[in-house]
Amino acid sequence: MKYMLRFLASGLMLVLFSQLSIAQVGFPKIFENAAVVSATQEASEAGIEIIQKGGNAIDAAVAVKFALAVTFPAAGNIGGGGFMVIRSADGNVSTLDFRETAPAAAHRDMYLDEDGEVIDRLSTFGHLASGVPGTVDGMITALEKYGTLPLDVVMEPAIRLARDGFRLSWREAGTLTRNRNRFSEFEGTKMYFTKSDGEDFVEGELFIQTDLANTLQRIADNGRDGFYAGETADLLVAEMESGGGIISHEDLANYRSVWREPIEVTYRDYTMHLMGPPSSGGIAIGQMLNKLEPYNLKRLGYNTPETIHLVAEVSRRVYADRAEFLGDPDFYDVPAGGLLDKGYNRDRMRTFNPSRASSSAEVSHGEPRMVKESDNTTHFSVVDKAGNAVSLTTTLNSGFGSFVTVTGGGFLMNNEMDDFSVKSGVPNQFGLIGGEANEVEPGKRMLSSMTPSIVTKDGQLHMLLGTPGGSTIMTTVLQVFLNIAEYGMNAQQAVAAPRFHHQWLPDQLYHEPFTFNRATQERLEWLGHDLNQRRFYTGQANCIVIKEDGTMETGADPRGMNYAAGF
Ligand code: GLY
Questions:
Q1: What is the pTM of this model?
Q2: In this model, does residue 372 exceed pLDDT 50?
Q3: Which atom of ligand 1 is nearest to the CA of 398?
Q4: Residue 415 and residue 396 in contact, taking contact as beta carbons nearer than 8 Å
Q5: How much distance in Å is there from the Cα of 434 to the middle of ligand 1?
């Protein structure tokens, strides 16, 4: 009851702050030497601890990632995957794909019954929903290439937090308590995430995860073999076999993260460095910016009906392309060059009518040049004094992933298989549809919306940004970027400002509670938009802006327990 009241109170707070002027909600913390913004205070402080031990931003990012696996069980993960954009101090940008893969025994129709209908929850809940995890390989691969400290040193804060415990925030205590029934459906999950006396978790309670600490220690001692072979792999495969899952020892042994070509998009004086497929985020943001660039957004005004209408129409066209053309580039020829071509994007806006909303039934995907060449995720950003920067988004897919915890291993498994198109044209949990480009195939990576981003301005490091939020990730990253680049907000204002979203199908313009005043709503409806006010907030964006004097201005989204640490 107490948590329900707090939850309602937080909704009320959102309502109140969204009605305040943006100037009143912006209090960015500013640091001189290093900054980390992540979903938990403990994880942000773990990153700073590693930098103070002499590590760089990449060492710190690996420390933050493992600390999130302990302090943010819903998304932090070692049983999931993600993407990482790294800009080293010399200006070189790399992007690492540690997205999960479909197990070798996976096949296109694995979530359909004999009549070809999608079986409810099979791709989202339970053992069959998991892809082969990529997080551990990703962290080790990044550390080997760019880190300066040994793995056991950067993992030390996470192991300590798991072994000695950390104090639950009111929000975490509430989340664990509210999910008790679903946790109880799986033996391991019930053991780790519910209390044996059936009581509620309470704020300030020490949460100890001994089996997770032991798993992390095996990784610290043995590197990737501490997860993909030996005892951890045996526990994971035994868990899968106990519940009808299909991840095998071979799947684990074969998993490799991949360095991908970064997507680079220019917009006025800015260059955005983004993740390419199997993230749809880089191409989508690139397409949106290319479509928006010819318009004078400043003159149209911040969140006026005209601006919202324009951005919604841009998003509609971009998400239609996403459904048709994006998938794992190792399995499908994604026409990235054609999709990002500025001329193609201008052409796609020929049907834009400033006085009338399009209908998604009439707006299909475009025809880009076929040139050979992806709601409960978490994002964090790290920057050090030398100018090394990491923007990392990671996930189990939905909160607590498949809800299956590896018994004896203490870590939750993802439900990332639902990010495949399990049946052409049938929406996934985020309402996204897809086709051949994103159908299930053994070893293939499922399309993602995760969009970790680094922005340079005149060749200098300028912004790090990203957010969770499933299908809303791209429109949130776009709005945070525009809030800073076009509307002059500081980092904190930019992440706190209210948000809206359009994803082609369903043909609705979503917005956070009380984002638009009555006049704006009426004008948007008059333009032909079907408005859908979400019950809760959209995403939890994190952002760091590097100012001209080299100071680091941080934005930690008030929609969660996000925390900026630094010195
Ligand atoms: N699982 C959410 C995403 O990758 O987009």
A1: 0.93
A2: no
A3: 1
A4: yes
A5: 14
